[in-house]
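Figure 2 data, in text form.
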Amino acid sequence: MKVYSPQEVSAGDGKEGRQALVAVDGKVYDFSLSKRWISGTHMNRHHAGMDLSKDIRSAPHGADIVSRFEVVGLYQGIVGQVHTGYRRTVETFLDRYPFFRRHPHPAVIHFPLAFLLAAPFMEIGAIITGSARTEWAAFCLLVTGVLSVPVALLTGYFTWWVNYDAVDSTMIRTKRRLAWSVLVLGSACCIVGVHIISDPLSRQGTDLVSASYVLALLALGAIVSFVGFLGGKLAFPYE
């Protein structure tokens, strides 16, 4: 069986009619016939002509997907990083249970996104209708959303460490800072809602405080939306 050098694999980039070659765990696969690898690109994120061993293991579909494609040779690439200590233990666990390499953060992040996006709309609905029950529902959404943020942060940091080796970038740095801003602003809104204007419709607080509370909820929804946008762009870049 032919042994491919890194240069030979990189020549199989799938562009202009060339083969779409991908190295995975020491073997070279031909993805040319796959409709999901048109022009050598998959999901606007992965590119042919590269060693995608780590990317395949952390992908949602799992590493066994490559068995569907033809093995055309062996890869004479650079030996990957050998982890030691605690990181080696974590990597061993993730190799055995690959679900935990990619899925926890995308699953958890939907909770603060959903709750903190719904809270300001529910709050506006309560003001328009004058419904105390709707006001209470908005506050419950806020509290539940804020409580789910630490878990989203924890899984986000774990995913960043495991799948990206904690390598920073402008997008990741922005996403991280905004996520902490959501936690701080959301917590402040909860405190205001409980201690100052526990029922804004009853006008227990001043009009200025009530208005600030609603504006803070709207800002919270906007920040959460942008964090979700950055997360989607990071996972599935389109540029």
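Caption note: The first helix runs from residue 6 to 11.
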